[in-house]
Model the fold of this input.
Amino acid sequence: MKYIRLVGLLAITLLSGAHSFAQEVDNPGTLEWVLKTTDLLEKRLNDAVSTPDAANLLIKLMESYEDFEAVALAGLYCHEVRAAAEQGRNYCNWLTNYRQEKDLNALVVRAQNARVQAIRMRDEASVCLQEATQRLPDASFTLADVIRANAKAIEYDLADGLASQNFHILSQKLEHAERIFHDTEVLAARLDNCETVGSNARQGIQACANALASPNWTLVTIRVQEAAAYAAKIMERAGECR
Done:
């Protein structure tokens, strides 16, 4: 009898958790930004395929890679948009699967496949936007929140690295912090009124690189503190990004 009750309580808990997870939706403004990004992606890739040129295709694929990546980094609840962004940036990253052919025909195929993912991303974002607008979530996660979360993660990495008093551990933390600074820069470059955040992210990357190249712990500490200051500025100015 106790076993049956335990199973029943567990089922209720799991269902309750699943229901809570299912209730999560993205901020409408974030989904509108995704739609703008997909319009840019589709036009760029369509133009590149219409007049194929190997050098131009490579440039367009690299530009599109960062647009797909920005959407992927936003951490959307809209699963199909996330999946399309992952697929799209995989097609656009011409270094991926480097053993594959890289002639003009192969690049055209990559661009066509990426364009399909951009269209899929647009369609799915439209569906999720309709749901999000109907429900009007009061505290949904915005793009500014993503940037704040990045800044907080950087601060944790840098603090943990310094506290370790160990170059090996610090190097790992700095590499991770540098990557998050880069992710923040990519996202900031595709948002309005976000230049200050992007600038601090670039300076944070440089500060991390300087720390990694420092010959002693005293200089390391100075450079890490500089990087932490840039992360704090990102946290402070994230709300300006739209």
Notes: The chain has two domains: 22-135, 143-240. Residues 13 and 134 are 27 Å apart (CA to CA).
